[in-house]
Each structure stands twice: as structure tokens, then as C-alpha cells.
Amino acid sequence: MKLLIVEDDADYAAGLKAEMEALDHRVTVAATGPAGLTAVEREGFDAVILDCMLPQIDGASVARRLRAGGHRLPVLMLSALGRSSEKVGGLEAGADDYVVKPTPAEEIDARLKALIRARGWTGGGETDTLAAGDIVVSPGQHRAWRAGEPLDLTRLEFALLAELARHAGSYLTRAMLLERVWGYDFEPTTNIVDAQIRSLRRKLTVAGGEDPIQTKRGVGYMLHR
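The line above is the sequence of Transcriptional regulatory protein PrrA; the predicted C-alpha cells follow.
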């Protein structure tokens, strides 16, 4: 896996980096929240190991910004304290799992692999992909293609396509998409899901291809396999 460690304790970060590299991972280290966010934007990662207490922007805020930006890669949070409030805060912000430092590298490795399996990804940084028919989505690279041609998508359109591709062949309700893509736990007064689906459809069929998104009234949307 290609991993990003966001950790301001230089000694701990160096030790964890060495341990994860010994487990055949490629590892990049960022010492601050902003540096971590920049690294995710510039490179493709399979997962992020994110410290809870960081200078400038704390770990929960970093996770929240990643999710708001449409990044769905797994996030494992680290904390030296292990308080329930920190754990709940990190998970609510968008982290997928949480461990208390120091945790053996082998356990971190196992947790990350479990998170990636749950996502249905194939690991490998630049090669992590979700495929549905002739559509390929790379969450790590934040890029998507149809029939080998790159798609020019907004962050929201990309997040929506990635979620549909992750569950290709199954219907996702509007409520499910609102929760997973927008982070809403309520039904907004506007039809934002329908509007984004229409926009995504236009871009997927701009070259004249068949519409790959199926709508079932009263149920939701499905991306064909």
C-alpha cells in the first residue's frame, strides 16, 4: 500500500514509517494538518494514518476536510490519550478506525487492510481502482475514466461516481447518497442528489455512450456493472 502518515512527533513518525516500510508499504510523512491535506491533493494514497493532535489543524478537522473534498480513502486515527470523546469526535469527523499510540505496526497494517477490503478497492496507490462496466474510478488519484477517456468531474461529481461504482449493480437511495457523499443525516429541501446525477450523466454520455446510471422511481440510483 501507499500510505500517508500525518504525525507531528518526528521520532514516532520515523519509527512508524520504518516499521510500515518493513511490511512492504510505501510511506510518506507529513508533519502538519495542512501538509497532509496538500499531500493527498498531489499524490495518490491507499490510506491515511492520521494523528489526532496536530499543529495548525487537528486530526478531526483534517478528516472532515478530506471528506468534504470528496476524498473517500480510508483514514485511521492515532491518539496518545484514547479518550472516548476523542474517539467519537474523530469517527464523526470521517475517520474509519481509531487506535491508541503506541499500537504495533502489525495491528495497524491489519486494520488498514481490513478497511481497504471493506471499500472494495484493489490496493497500490496509483493503481487502486473501482470498475463498473467501461467506467474506472481511482479514489487514490481522484481520477475517473470511461472507455479509457478521462472524465472532467467536479469534486462532488467524482465522490458521487465513486460511491455508485463502489456499489455497482445495487441501488443506492437518495438518503444513502446524501449521507455518504454529502455527509447529511437529513433530507434537504432541494433536490441536490437529482441535480448532481443529471450533471454526472451529461459528462458520462458526452461522447454519445449509453447512460450507465439506472433510476428506479421510489428506490434510487444504480450504476451498471
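Note on the example: The longest strand covers residues 2-6. Helices lie at 10-22, 33-42, 59-68, 84-93, 105-119, 155-166, 174-182, 192-204.
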